[in-house]
Amino acid sequence: MDHKVTVVGAGHVGATTAQRIAEAELADVAMIDIMGDMAQGKALDMMESAPVLGFDAKIEGGSDYDLSAGSDICVVTAGLPRKPGMSRDDLLAKNQAITQEVVGELIKRSPDTILILVTNPLDAMCEVARRVSELPRERVFGMAGVLDSARMRCFVAAELGVSVKDVTAFVLGGHGDSMVPLARYTTVAGVPLPELLDDETIEAINNRTRKGGGEIVGLLKTGSAYYAPSAAAFDMVSSILRDKKQILPCSVYLQGEYGLDKVYAGVPAKLGRKGIEQVMEFELEDDERNALHTSAADVKELFEKL
Fold this sequence. Notes:
The chain is an alpha/beta fold and 306 residues long. It has two domains: 4-142, 3-Layer(aba) Sandwich (Rossmann fold), CATH 3.40.50; 145-305, L-2-Hydroxyisocaproate Dehydrogenase, Chain A, domain 2, CATH 3.90.110.10. 43% of the residues lie in helices and 20% in strands. The chain has nine helices and 14 strands. The strands form four sheets. It has a six-stranded parallel β-sheet, with helices on both faces. Strands 7-10-11 form a three-stranded antiparallel β-sheet, covered by helices on one side. Strand 1 (4-8), helix 1 and strand 2 form a beta-alpha-beta unit.
């Protein structure tokens, strides 16, 4: 393959992300985990599926960060999982230490890489990675809005009985309970959602979107979501390596956009070969802007605890 992607964390999210990337032949994949034998075993299992599925990407696994050398993109999923009753804030201190170590090891071996953070609490871990790596914001960002918007699209499609392909949605703000689903910019075959559903139904969809991760955690009992998160990470990797210039909602370090500065928040961004190539700004109504700023304030509170 012309490209190489490292995925740190060989749990459900990391392994499924690696599998999706390899099967699509986007890149060769290195999968790294503190449990090296597990990572190596999963990588071997994936490689043994290659003759059946017909992909030629190579997958390696282990605990040695030397496997990551020369990576175009590093996707960081390593961290403690969210458990029932646990907020993303509870994860902060433990996952900060993990992210610091992981990013430090990656940057030593791939100084020109692009970092995509998946570890929760997502926006705070992006800030940890930015500080440790000292990379520009274009190359350190998080997978949040793609997942949150996908959940909203899923719920809207189910409510209306239409194809998810006909639904577009944008969810802004932090990746947590204060995220900001934007019904005005959510459309079904180009028709704004408020013209199709009443306010009460829209608010119910918004609330379910905000609590989408927690809903799955509650159902699984011993784990958290990984099919949708890995699909979202794959979408971002694909847009970068194929230079698609897709407009995707990502957790971006804002520098004045939307009236916010020096904070990570989910906003629409153009993703291409250089990473974040443009932050897309559009008009927000007062209540939407206030909600976005409230969400960003929650993220800044986490920054202060780092």
